[in-house]
Design goal:
This protein has 408 residues and is an alpha+beta fold. It has 2 domains: 99 residues, Rieske Iron-sulfur Protein; 201 residues, Naphthalene 1,2-dioxygenase Alpha Subunit, Chain A, domain 1, CATH 3.90.380. The protein has 10 helices and 16 strands. A hairpin with a 4-residue loop joins β14 and β15. The longest helix is centred in the C-terminal third of the chain and has 26 residues. It binds FE2/S2 (inorganic) cluster (FES) and fe (iii) ion.
Length: 408
């Protein structure tokens, strides 16, 4: 499939309906996305606690590329392709800490800033200063490590400025990872993300989530009553209970179609945190000193999302791995000073773990049906406006990317 054919396919998609089968199963489309649209997005690659000390490095895969994220001697986080400038070997296989990065093949060694430090027996005419590791865009925002293959880091300046006061208040830069779980989902990344940005499925599929999160009332079968009741409860919470010191805007925390968003809202029903009984699971996170029962959300569309309660935070990673394979990882963060004995990991992970296991199953069932010869696009409900907007934005950006490719 060339870009002209892809453009025809994009143009015949019906607004407000799910996509045609090709978009979910075609290796050719995935390959075009991987090289173009997906490469230009930002992804969560980790948390600062994984690469805090000078000389520490982590090895992460992004869109089929192995990347090295390195804390250099001056404390700057740098990103490189894990590809030796000699004959291309992978340099590091796993996370570690070292004064230099040494390729195991012929022993070329690189400084932590990516420059070549030594290469034995090279002809005098070879300019070794030209053989730096290939850089890749990375950025730390309030303790969250973001990476991309082709995005311009300057585009994150505004987001960094907007997010850092809130993330600092929540202590995310000094937090530690108390648990991490992986949910490999065998479905196209769009099916995974379409599911993540709607809650139409919450009542049929997520009884535990619905038992905790008050905002699901908004999705109560499109009834005006529950939605109005929730808005009223939220307003009262902002006026009477919300932490006045929090710099995070009081505008709810639901994902929107905007490029980035942040906000706070009540979990609901008097819950202090997202545990089954609503009671705390860890000491206060960051500068918070009172259980106001709020949840704060930070999102950069489409792949970056963090949700923080008063005592822990949940960091999501969505990583497309193949046309029908998306890795979903969740890290639960607690305050950096919280001792192990003070954190109840099983109670902390309960809600998102049970919910994400359910999501993996429903997304994979969705993928199985989409592969059928009788599958055709279906209409989104009024409660899937997030998904409809998400797909609309994806098609618009893909269309302009095709236009640029044709013009080039
Ligand atoms: Fe790395 Fe030869 S490929 S030193
Ligand atoms: Fe879900």
């Amino acid at each position: 499939m060339n870009t002209t054919e892809l453009r025809h396919l994009i143009d015949r998609q019906r607004p407000g309906w799910s996509l045609e089968q090709h978009f979910y199963v075609s290796p050719e489309i995935y390959e075009l996305e991987r090289r173009g649209w997906l490469a230009a997005q930002w992804y969560v690659l980790g948390h600062v606690s994984e690469v805090r000390e000078p000389g520490s490095f982590i090895v992460r895969e992004l869109l089929g590329e192995s990347l090295l994220l390195v804390r250099d001697a001056a404390g700057v986080l740098r990103g490189f392709y894990n590809v030796c400038r000699h004959r291309g070997s992978r340099i590091c296989e796993k996370d570690g800490r070292a004064g230099a990065l040494v390729c195991p093949y012929h022993g070329w060694s690189y400084r932590l800033d990516g420059s070549l430090r030594s290469a034995a027996a090279m002809p005098a005419e070879i300019d070794l200063t030209q053989l730096r590791l290939h850089p890749v865009p990375v950025r730390e925002i309030g303790g969250i490590i973001l990476g991309s293959l082709t995005a311009d880091p300057a585009a994150l300046d505004e987001i960094q400025q907007a997010f850092e006061p809130g993330l600092a208040y929540l202590g995310i830069p000094n937090a530690r990872i108390a648990a991490r779980r992986s949910y490999p989902t065998y479905a196209n990344w769009k099916l995974a993300m379409e599911n993540f940005v709607e809650c139409y499925h919450c009542f049929p599929c997520h009884p535990e989530y619905c038992s905790v999160m008050g905002h699901v009332d908004l999705y109560a079968r499109d009834l005006p009553g529950p939605a109005a009741a929730w808005t009223e409860r939220e307003t009262r919470w902002f006026q009477e209970e919300a932490d006045r010191d929090s710099p995070i805007p009081e505008q709810g925390f639901l994902l929107t179609r905007r490029k980035f968003s942040q906000g706070r809202g009540p979990i609901g029903a008097g819950r202090k945190t997202q545990s089954q009984d609503g009671q705390p699971v860890a000491p206060f996170l960051g500068k918070q000193r009172r259980f106001d029962g709020g949840a704060s959300g930070f999102g950069v569309n489409p792949f970056v999302f963090l949700q923080a309660m008063n005592d822990h935070a949940v960091l999501f990673q969505f990583l497309p791995r193949g046309v029908e394979h998306t890795d979903v990882l969740i890290s639960w963060l607690v305050d950096g000073s919280a001792r192990e004995a003070e954190v109840d990991v099983p109670r902390m992970v309960w809600m998102w773990d049970v919910t994400t296991v359910q999501d993996k199953a429903i997304i994979e069932r969705n993928a199985a049906g989409v592969r059928s010869r009788v599958y055709t696009p279906g209409p989104y409900s009024k409660l899937e406006s997030g998904t409809a907007g998400y797909i609309k934005g994806y098609l618009e950006e893909l269309r302009s990317m095709c236009a640029r490719a044709v013009a080039a």
